[in-house]
Amino acid sequence: MSRFPADSVGLVSPQRHISTEPLALACGRSLPQYELVYETYGQLNASRSNAVLICHALSGHHHAAGYHSEDDRKPGWWDACIGPGKAIDTNRFFVVSLNNLGGCHGSTGPSSIDPETGKTYGGRFPMIVVEDWVNSQARLADHLGVQCWAAVVGGSLGGMQALQWAIHYPDRLRHCVAIATASKLSAQNIAFNEVARQAIITDPDFHGGDYAAFGVIPKRGLGLARMVGHITYLSDDAMGQKFGRELRSERLNYDISSVEFQVESYLRYQGQEFSERFDANTYLLMTKALDYYDPARAHGDDLAKALAPVTARSLVISFSTDWRFAPARSRELANALLAARKDVSYLEIDAAQGHDAFLLPIPRYIQALSSYMNRIEVDA
Q1: What pairs with residue 38 in β-bridges?
Q2: What's the Enzyme Commission number for this chain (predicted)?
Q3: Going from the N-terminus, what domains does the chain have, and what CATH number goes with each?
């Protein structure tokens, strides 16, 4: 008998799609060949009408649900939403989750070998943007025999990808679900990303992105970047409830360099752990892709015009204490869809957890997402 919960997809194995067809990139360069690592949950039906694409956020990857081994203590990053009877019900849907190009969890990225040099790409890996991800995902859909997604779903940076799918491939998805996201970053968001990038770039072990050649990694810079990012993903209330001003010991040390507050210890742990499992060049690439995304720019900053090609029905969800991707940005997107005469539903969830709320099993959020997904019709 499996030790996994009844609503889990259980054991899953990553798969690989190898493309030998060059992929032209928005930056003007191209990838002559590349690999995408992905996982699938559920079964594709005979009419191929029940496929759902999951797009990940900045530090996400292909492992969205289930377990890789019987010994795994934690499931995939969105296991709260994907599985039998869950919001994205694998009894109904064939769910596909991938690691984006430029990632560091198996898909071709800066830590991969450049076939032209036989060495790690490092800082020479080309810039990848949201449009490039969507184009590579469309090729993956072709490989899987999916002509039209029942839905493309994503939170944060993943929500930008879902939106770009609706704009660029309007005939290839029926529903767009954009959660805790925006059509473009605010100046403050870009500023946070730049601070994080500078922490990495100025690390002595960065070596212009070619740290692999020196047998080192910019741990300190990447750890600091993660600390900055993690602060912005939580709300003030969430941090207060989790840590307050609690000390690690009963007295103050009066030492500038000591770790005395629990929140300090937590952030240092998060930074250290992240620096050991994530690639610094990938972090730089992902944050820059966030900064660049702005579909309205090519339309005189008129978002409604940029959304004119959309035919999918859309669900836009925001969270009240998310100050990184504030509800105002989601309302802006929903209003632009309405102005473009598109079918859109908008919901703001009252949640204390900040931006990270989109990853958590908050009852009202799960109920709303479940209700929407259950209304998506799929053929036999």
Answers
A1: 15, 98
A2: 2.3.1.46
A3: 15-184+295-374 (3.40.50.1820), 189-287 (1.10.1740.110)
Judge whether 279 counts as a catalytic residue: no
* 19 noted as active-site residue: no
User: Binding site annotation covers 48?
Assistant: no
Burial of 116 (0-12, 13-18, 19+ CB in 10 A): exposed
Q: Which of 59, 156, 183, 330 does the annotation list as catalytic?
A: 156
Q: Which helix H or strand E contains 163, and what residues bound it?
A: helix 157-168
Q: Which of 61, 107, 322, 330 is catalytic?
A: 322
Which residue among 56, 62, 175, 355 is the active-site one? 355
63-105 confidence digits (pLDDT tens): 999 999 998 989 999 999 999 999 999 999 999 999 999 999 9
**pLDDT, tens digit, 9 for 90 and up, residues 119-139:** 999 999 999 999 999 999 999
- 259-293: b or e for each residue (b if 16 or more CB lie within 10 Å)? eebebeebbeebbeebbeebbbbbbbbbbbbbbbb
116 has pLDDT over 70: yes
Given a contact cutoff of 8 angstroms between Cβ atoms, the answer to whether 287 and 274 are in contact is no
Say whether 356 counts as a known binding-site residue.
yes
